[in-house]
Each structure stands twice: as structure tokens, then as C-alpha cells.
Amino acid sequence: MTAHHRTRIDDRFAALAAEGRAALVTFITAGDPDHGTSLAILKGLPAAGADVIELGMPFTDPMADGPAIQASSLRALAAGQTLKKTLDLVREFRVSDNATPLVLMGYYNPIYSYGVERFLTDARTAGVDGLIVVDLPPEEDGELCLPALQAGLNFIRLATPTTDEKRLPAVLNNTSGFVYYVSITGITGTRAAEAASIRQALERIRAHTRLPIAVGFGVKTAAQAAAIAAHADAVVVGSALVEAIRASLDGSVASARTVGEVHGLVRSLAQGVRGARAAAAE
Amino acid sequence: MNKTAPIANTFRSGPDERGHFGNHGGRFVAETLMPLILSLEQAYNAAKVDPAFHAELDGLHKTYSGRPSPLYFAERMTEHLGGAKIYFKREELNHTGSHKINNCLGQVLLARRMGKTRIIAETGAGQHGVAVATVCARFGLPCVIYMGETDVARQKPNVFRMKLLGAEVRPVTSGSRTLKDAMNEALRDWVSNVEDTFYIIGTAAGPHPYPAMVRDFQAIIGEEARAQILEAEGRLPDALVAAVGGGSNAIGLFYPFLDERDVAIYGVEAAGRGLGTDEHAASISGGRPGVLHGNRTYLLQDEDGQIKEAHSISAGLDYPGIGPEHSWLNDVGRVKYVPITDREALAAFQSVTRLEGIIPALESAHALAYVEKLAPTMGSDRIIIANFSGRGDKDVFAVADHLGVEM
Predict the structure, then answer these.
(1) Which tens digit of pLDDT belongs to each residue from B217-245?
(2) Where are the beta strands (DSSP E) in B31-180?
């Protein structure tokens, strides 16, 4: 374990645990459908009810993502999004919000191309709290995970249904901030897991760690979010939000509805998440 | 680690226990796939030392796919070029028409050992797809082949062959609709069906252990060539030439010769419309190291690390990456990677067909085009072995199109 720096993620989960409710983690792709609209969506997420923000770093070949998120990446890239501009987006967001935790999520190649040292410095300066890099398993920790922890960023790892008892400790070692439990074997935005299997998985992972556990993949509605929030520490919603952006577009450009529709969906999801524990207790 | 350090004077010690060839290789995949890749590595390591596995594979090579493939002295081409003696390693004579069957037979036996009941694969030109569909028919396994929509359109004969063999061909409409996107879709399928599915990767790329495993299954090309040239000429060749997309036929020919310092080795990359243009597939000559499809290797990418589309007249070569062992062999200077353009490959396709009465695959035509450049610079006492990796039946429509002939 590397020396642990306290981040906005740690603070936010501690605060929510004290409140006795789960977090809503919202994912959007940086620069989708364009930089300005993306900034407007980003800025309004906390007020709409997002407790933690995941910001996707667009990549041409997102092999663990489904069609919705791949399409959002390609929209952002077509509109000229780059990793540098994604960090600009974080910096602009931090002007008005210094409390909401922000996690960058994506694939390794754009970071590797940017330069790991330079990326970590720039990400931290911009106000990034953590990283999720889908194609960096523990076997490649030396690449980015360890330097990131050293730089004071959380490195959030995915655990999946195929991560067995033997492997869990390796996955959890060097993980910080929270653990992201991918509730299905599959790509993002396809199907949702059974509540019972999620409960079982949560128990299994909790036996190995005290980190908060977020559950995602396939969560689309407030009811689904509520069902997961009754047991998990956080619910992640991504494809549904990205799909809401797509559905609001006028051809390939943002319409007057785009920002509002995304925030509307987040408000409804947040209601589900916030009511979950109370509903479960009744 | 209690593994002995690699011996400094060999080029055959890679990869290390983490799957790295120098700075390249590795295992860059989503967590869902990691346990599977680790168990694949275990299963492969066990098979490697199991005589029963080798006996079954050798038997299939001999009676099913037609090995050993001959080493042929290309007399007319040698005469025509007026330099080194040219030999072809005749992989195009294999069942299914290319070297791809060597690897598919190995991997399908491994899939059976692991108890997997469903096979998936990606294909560019369709040579690998046909080989996978063939072994699946042979062993009665259901099989899904991902193929870019663009490639489905330009490789119709192979698409039909795969379907005849009982495979389901799924056209991929995402991204550039070619090989890299087919590989993305195959990986997505695998992530979604890890329990019962075995992914037969066709080239010496992807996450460890694939690059080493595919190389080992293809090394039979070089092993045979080595014995055959010793028998024919009483000595080793002076040069080896093979086309490189992902690089499986090339690494198969090269590997048994890597430590023979007097054998010059050339990997031929597809330079498309020219290295100076944006339309080529030369990952080493025109790219830089990056991480894609589970490994670090030379990639065609823009300044922001976004993967660029590759272009080649040959659907089998237009992949924006290359196997990690090739990247390492380039870095250490053991293999020289050289470019051949679409135009040069097309010319060689025609000249070799006329001179030798063998129609080469467009992939192989790239290697042969380089032989046409190299042979005249060498003395008539010198020897070149070129890997004739596949036959050109599948390419005749594309070539006719380029030549402006209506069929």
C-alpha cells in the first residue's frame, strides 16, 4: 500500500455513510456531443443529484463498452475532444464546484500517449480525484496505478463476477476511493443483474475490504437504481445518460433540450437512490 | 521471482513470465477477461509439455492439413531477377489455403482441453475466419466469426466459404468496419460469454499468452523450412522475407532462425498508398508504441493516442497494430521492417503468377515484392526464403477491380 492521501471521494463517501444513504455516480463522456454542451451538463450534475461524477475520456476503441458509450466517444472525438480538452473541462467545472468528487474513466492508450507523469500532474492540478482505467488489470499496476497513488489520486478498480475469491485480494490491493463492481459479465449498457446475485457479490467483496462498493452496468431506471442502492454504497449509471444525450440531439448536434433531459434523468435516478434505504426498511 | 534471467545471446527467450517482449506485449484487458486469460495460460503451459497434445496436433497436420508444406525453388523468378536463389515456403498449399490453419488446429485442441463449447474469432481477409470455421466443422463446435462490413463486401468468396462450413459470420458496422473493429467486437462477445467461449485469435498479437502461443503454433513453418533448406542446399539461407500485418506467418518463419546471426530477416509492412500519406498499414515504419487489444506494441495513432484506420490493398494486412514480438525484434534490431506499397504488391502479384504459375494472396505479394527488390542486390550464390503464406484465389476479384477488369 502506498501512502494514502485523503481525496474528495473519501470525504464524500464518509459524509453519505453518515447520512445513511448510497451515492449516485453518474457517467458522461467528456465532450459529448461538444465541449460547451458537455460543460453545461457537467456543471449541473451535482444540483440534479449526482454525488460522484465519472467523466469518460473518449477513445476510438473502447472494447469493454457497449454501443451507446462507444457512440458517445465517437461523437466527442468528431467534435474535436482530446485528453487535454477533457482536463480543461475538469478545470472549468472546478471553478464552480470544489466538493463533488470527479473520476476520469477510460482506456490506457490516450494516457500513455500523453505521458503518464505529465498526465498525473495535469489531472491532479485540474481537480481530478480518481482514475478508472478499464484495460489496466493489477498485473500492470506499475504502469499507472502505483504512480497515480503516489501522486495522490485514487485508483478505482473493477471487480466482476469472474473475479473469484483467489483473485479478489489482488484486485483490491492498491485499490482506493471505492471498488466498482461490474454486476454482469458483459459490456456496458446491455442488461442488468439480478438483485440477489448483486447482494451475494457485495457480501463476498465486503469480506475482503472496507472500501465503499459501487455497482454498475445495465442500470437504466430509478427503480433499478433504488433496488441496488438499498444494499450497495453507490449506484453507477452511464449508458442511460449517454443515451439520453443521443436521443436529444438534432441530427448530430446538441438541441435546446439536451442539457435539461440529462439533468431530468439524473434527478429521477437520484430520487430513486435517496429513497432506497427508507423504502427497503419499510 | 525464481525464474532464471533470459540468456543475453538469444532472441528466443521471450516473453518473460508477465508476457512482455522488452517494452512490448503484456496483458492489457478488462478485469472480466483476466481470470480467463490466466487459465488459458495455464492450460497452454500444460499442453505444451503434454506428448498427447503434440501427437494429436502432429497427426492433424499430417493427415488433415497436408504438412509438411514443400519448400519450392522458384527457378523462373530467380532467373528473371538475376541474383539470389529464391525459395518459396508453400504455406498456400495447406488445407484452407494459408498458414492460418496451423494456429487454428492448435487452439481448437486447446479449447477442447479447456472444456469450451463455443468458438469465436475475428477475421480481416477471411483466411483466418475460414481456418477457424474449418476446425469448428471438424470438431463439431458452434462458431461465430466477426468481420468488418467493409471486408465482408470485398472478400465475398471467403464469407461464403465460412457459411458453407457452418459458421455464423457477423458483419461489424462499428468504427472503420475493418479488422480492428472486428477484433473489438470479438472481445466484447468474449467479455459477455466468458464461461463457455474460446476466442481463437488469428495473429501473434493480443494479450499474453496469445502472441507466444500463436508464434509457437506457427513456428512449424520455420522449423520445416530450416530442415528443408539444409537438405536442398546443405546450408542455411542468407535471408528470410515474410509479410507482416499482425505478423503470424512472419514470426512462424522467423522464430527458429532468430539466433542464426548470419541470416538476415525482413518483415514486409503494407505501405498502402505510401508512408508519406495517411493511407498505409505500416505500424512500425509509420507508428509508435501504444496499447490496444490487450498488448503494447507499435500502433498507428494520432497525437492524442486515438487509433487511426489502416489502409492496404490487402484486407489481411490493414490492421493498425503488429504483434509485440515483432515490435521488440525491431527495437533490438534483429529484424528489419521494410515497406511495400499497394502498387508494388499488385505488380508482384502479377509477375509471380506469370513466372511461377502460382497466384499469391495479396498479403504474400507484399513479401514477394520485397524479394524482387532484394534478390538482384545479392550474389547468385546467396539464398532467400520467402514465405508464400496464402493463395490468391480470394483476391482475384479485388485484383481484377484494381486492374479495371470486369468479371
Answers:
(1) 999 999 999 999 999 999 999 999 999 99
(2) 71-73, 85-90, 118-123, 143-148, 168-172
In 3D space, the residue among A1, A15, A17, A27 whose CA is nearest the CA of residue A262 turns out to be: A27
Residue B297 with chain A: CB contacts under 8 Å: none
Q: Which of A60, A62, A135 is opposite residue B28, by nearest beta carbon?
A: A135
Please report which helix (H) or strand (E) contains residue B395, including its range. Answer: none
- Please tell me which of the candidates A111, A157, A187 has its beta carbon nearest to residue B192: A187
Q: Look at residues B362, B293, B394, B378 and name the one whose alpha carbon lies nearest to residue B82.
A: B378
**Does the CB of B27 have a partner CB in chain A at under 8 Å?**
yes
Compute the distance between CA of residue B236 and CA of residue B25 in angstroms, rounded to an integer.
30
Residues ≥6 apart with Cβ < 8 Å to B280: B269, B270, B271, B272, B273, B274, B286, B300, B310, B311, B312, B339, B341
From B18, B188, B296, residue closest to A63, measured CB to CB:
B188
The reply to whether residue A109 touches residue B188, judged by beta carbons under 8 angstroms, is: no
Kindly list the residues from chain A whose CB atom is less than 8 angstroms away from the CB atom of residue B26.
Answer: 139-140
What are the E-state strand segments in B230-286?
239-244, 264-272
Contacts of A162 in chain B (CB under 8 A): 31-36, 194
- Residue B300 to residue B292: CA distance in whole angstroms: 10
- Report pLDDT digits (tens) over A197-248: 899 999 999 999 999 999 998 899 999 999 999 999 999 999 999 999 999 9
Check B35 against A159: CB less than 8 A apart. Answer: no
In whole angstroms, what is the distance from residue B120 CA to residue A63 CA? Answer: 15
**Alpha-carbon gap, residue B94 to B148, rounded angstroms:** 25
Rounded to whole angstroms, the Cα distance separating B357 from B73 reads 13
**Burial environment of residue B140 by CB neighbours within 10 A (0 to 12, 13 to 18, 19 or more):** exposed
As for the ipTM of the complex, it is 0.94
Question: What letter represents residue B340's amino acid?
Answer: I
* Cross-chain Cβ contact B32/A162 below 8 Å: yes
Q: How many CB atoms lie within 10 A of CB B121?
A: 30
Of residues B234 and A279, which shows the higher confidence score?
Answer: B234
The answer to whether the Cβ–Cβ distance between A113 and B192 falls below 8 Å is: no
| Closest residue by Cα to residue A217 from A86, A76, A68, A72 | A68
pLDDT of B343 higher than 70: yes
Beta-bridge partners for A163: none
